[in-house]
Amino acid sequence: MSLVDLAFDGTLKPRDLTGREKEIDAVDKATLYTPLGAAVFSRHKEVIKLLLDYGANPNGVPQSYPPLWIAAARTKGHIGSIVGMLLARKPDVNIASDLTNKSTPLHALVKRYRSEDDVYVIEALVDAGANPNAKNKRGESAMSVATARNDKKLLAILSPNGRKRSHLRNLGMLVSLILFVFAWVNKRPALMVAAGISATAIRGYGPIKKRFKISGLDKAEIPPHILEKVEKDKSARNFKEEMNRYIKKAHLDQFFRKGKEGFLDEVIKKAVDLQSDPKSSAHPSDLIRLALFQPVLYCDDSGSMKRDNRIQLQADLSERITSLTTRLVPDGTGIELRLINGQTSDLMSKPSPEKVSEILKNRVVYAGPTEIGTNCRAKILEEVVYQPIRKKMFHRPVLVSILTDGCPLGPPGSNETRDTLKDVILKCGVFLEKHGYRKDVVRFQISQIGQDAAAKEFIKSLATDDQLKGVLYCTTRKKHTYSVHPSLSTCIWYLGY
């Protein structure tokens, strides 16, 4: 078994590390956890101590989720003692990676905030130097989250002028205390002596016991199934509050009034389940916003797509986009697939991510020009936006993801020009406002497939057009990496707020 698997199981022993020292910070490809991250997620404290003693990096490695962030964002149950063990090894308390959308451990815990126990951990992070104003990729911070909730208790802790800091004066005391707990549980008097602490003395460390939830050794723990239900209920409430704030700020109230509770409740339920899945690298908070929008995938089937493995690249990206935009939506809803040139078939309505990839690789004939704007209006906006509005059946805002490898080009006699797509997007906004909707309830994202210089210049011209700000987001491809990772979580920009 890998060290990560042993750490997840809680069965990692010193003998397992012999001769495998180079694997101590190895990253599991499925979870992007190091062994220490896996032990933190699973709350195996003896394994955490073992790995730290053997030199595991308390910050993780660049390709992994930071252990302190895992504790704050994903670990179930009481996390105080785990955070205390990590803080004792002097990690970067403001660590923020691309995997976490630049969210710090403090921001993650304030956002997750489940119970009074988390308050003491939040206080400890701030005391250790965590910055309440550090912003993630969406511009959120721990302070802004607490402010949005009007949580006076958290604001007092996060504000340097609103609280008296109770710094941890002796982290060595905390480490000794944890050593004692291990010794007490395992009936090892020698370790108690090494820890320099007695069962009587433990009662004297009130603030630390309270903060890190290490009091009451004689009390039984809450049964795991009860604890899990309590945590899921709290997560569901947090997700619901976050969703309602976004709906209000994005002015989507007209779509999600009474009668939509079933849809929203299902989204929240799936978000809670996703949050507890260690093998998921997606961020539920981001996907909740995506789930509110009806996704439409508009793919390029022009003849130039046959070059440079572009068909495979488009299929892979389309599968990823479909997975993320539909991960949390109720069964029976899903993405709509459309092609620039090809006819729409029944297979293209609500296909699975795998089916989208299969269609684009095996069922599409790649030929013809690139009338991207003309057919965007005819195949997407007429079907998904204009007709439903005229029939008073427009029930969700729309997100159109456009994938293309080239510049607009029509056959002889076509009205397609370089500006057609821009004009179509602008006229969509006019139509929406005329019928009582904000123009940004239909949003567009365009990504380049391949490396055509003219296509890159075309997309750049759209990205820098002030008239399209707020409704269009653009990405281009450079060499073999995307300038913006195609996870769509970074594309929350065009979902706003």
Can you describe what's shown?
ANK repeats lie at residues 31-63, 101-137. With 497 residues, the protein is an alpha/beta fold. The protein has 4 domains: 3-158, Ankyrin repeat-containing domain (Serine Threonine Protein Phosphatase 5, Tetratricopeptide repeat), CATH 1.25.40; 171-212, no CATH class; 224-280, no CATH class; 289-495, von Willebrand factor, type A domain (Rossmann fold, 3-Layer(aba) Sandwich), CATH 3.40.50. The chain is built from 21 helices and 7 strands. The chain has helices spanning 3-9, 14-17, 35-42, 45-53, 67-73, 80-87, 105-112, 116-127, 142-149, 152-158, 171-185, 189-195, 206-212, 224-249, 261-275, 284-292, 310-326, 353-362, 372-390, 420-434, 453-463; strands at residues 294-299, 336-339, 398-404, 442-448, 472-475, 477-478, 481-482. Strands 2-1-3-4-5 form a 5-stranded parallel sheet, sandwiched between helices. Strands 6-7 form a two-stranded antiparallel ribbon. A hairpin with a 2-residue loop joins strand 6 (477-478) and strand 7 (481-482). Helix 1 (3-9) packs parallel to helix 3 and helix 3 (35-42) packs antiparallel against helix 4 (45-53). The radius of gyration is 26 Å and the shape is globular. The protein starts with a helix and ends in a 15-residue tail after the last strand.
